[in-house]
């Protein structure tokens, strides 16, 4: 049986950018299908793509459409993922062969986006938050495949840290075990998504996109490592939500998930939706602002990486 209809496809804009050496920024699609309500999700995805273009780079939003991994989506494909929402298969690394074989629509998590971006030759990716070690992982073993992907796919991922739905100290320990550089952008304290700080100190901190590009070059070109780099970029002050305001909401969401027995891949989407509901949309506005902020930094990094010196 020929499987040639299932090869990774890049759209025209991305293909051209790869050929001519233009900076490209990858973006994930689980944030569209499972991370935000419709139509905010679709409008944000369009806005982010336009922002990347206006800053002089090319966007590559990544998803699986009818079994075909697509690096670079059409507007209709983005609309489809956003509208279908939870009906789309949330596709982490393990899910890829099954989703492709059955020609399903799949949204890509951070792990899958890194894998497909790297396969296509893209090394910078912007998102909101990454998966991590969940609270209670000492009994559930719920550790996101996102964390292991950083030791397998050479991609710089810009995020706003991790939400306190996760166990942040354990997440940092896990990343250290996997040999992943976690680099603070203009901060020495791990950002906690809605808040600029978590109280967890970072070992590595840089002031510029150029330094991040240099770290990646050393890792990729000189050491020939297959690891990615996690850049943590604090939410802009004016959009941040103080710990006192968000911590009790997160506690309530985690408690409800626990009571309802929500586990595994359904855990993160449930918690995200609950937080939006409990903050009456305030968290959604913060979420949009921080992703936009991460896209801006990712474009800068992608541009630095394209400079020939
Ligand atoms: N965290 C967020 N927003 C998100 C996600 C995580 O704050 O949208 C999504 C990302 O796609 C991430 C995935 O890769 O959830 C992690 O899911 P899991 O924990 O099941 O690996
Ligand atoms: Mn999990």
TrEMBL record:
The keyword Chaperone does not apply. Pfam families: Indigoidine_A (PF04227). Signal peptide: none annotated. InterPro entries: Indigdn_synthA-like, PsuG. Its EC number is 4.2.1.70. Coiled coil: none annotated. Keywords: Glycosidase, Hydrolase, Lyase, Manganese, Metal-binding. The keyword Manganese applies. It comes from the Eukaryota. GO terms for molecular function: hydrolase activity, acting on glycosyl bonds; pseudouridylate synthase activity. This is Pseudouridine-5'-phosphate glycosidase. It comes from Blattamonas nauphoetae.
């Amino acid at each position: 049986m020929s499987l040639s209809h299932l090869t990774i496809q890049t759209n025209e804009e991305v293909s051209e950018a790869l050929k001519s050496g233009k900076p490209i920024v990858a973006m994930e699609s689980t944030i569209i299908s499972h991370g935000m309500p419709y139509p905010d999700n679709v409008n944000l995805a369009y806005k982010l793509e336009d922002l990347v273009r206006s800053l002089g780079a090319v966007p590559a939003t990544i998803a699986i459409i009818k079994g075909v991994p697509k690096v670079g989506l059409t507007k209709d494909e983005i609309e489809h993922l956003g509208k279908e929402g939870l009906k789309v298969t949330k596709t982490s690394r393990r899910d890829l062969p099954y989703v492709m074989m059955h020609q399903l629509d799949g949204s890509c998590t951070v792990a899958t986006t890194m894998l497909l971006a790297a396969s296509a030759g893209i090394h910078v990716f912007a998102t909101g938050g990454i998966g991590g070690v969940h609270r209670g992982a000492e009994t559930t073993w719920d550790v996101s495949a996102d964390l292991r992907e950083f030791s397998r796919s050479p991609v710089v991922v810009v995020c706003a840290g991790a939400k306190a739905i996760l166990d942040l100290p354990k997440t940092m320990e896990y990343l250290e075990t996997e040999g992943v550089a976690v680099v603070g952008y203009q901060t020495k304290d791990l950002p906690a998504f809605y808040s600029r700080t978590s109280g967890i100190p970072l070992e590595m901190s840089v002031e510029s996109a150029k330094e991040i590009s240099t770290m990646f070059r050393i890792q990729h070109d000189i050491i020939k490592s297959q690891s990615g780099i996690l850049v943590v970029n604090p939410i802009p002050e004016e959009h941040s939500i103080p710990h006192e305001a968000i911590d009790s909401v997160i506690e309530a969401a985690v408690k409800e998930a626990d009571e309802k027995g929500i586990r595994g891949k359904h855990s993160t989407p449930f918690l995200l939706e609950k937080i939006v509901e409990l903050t009456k949309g305030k968290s959604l506005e913060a979420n949009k602002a921080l992703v936009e902020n991460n896209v801006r930094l990712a474009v800068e990094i992608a541009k630095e990486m394209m400079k020939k010196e």
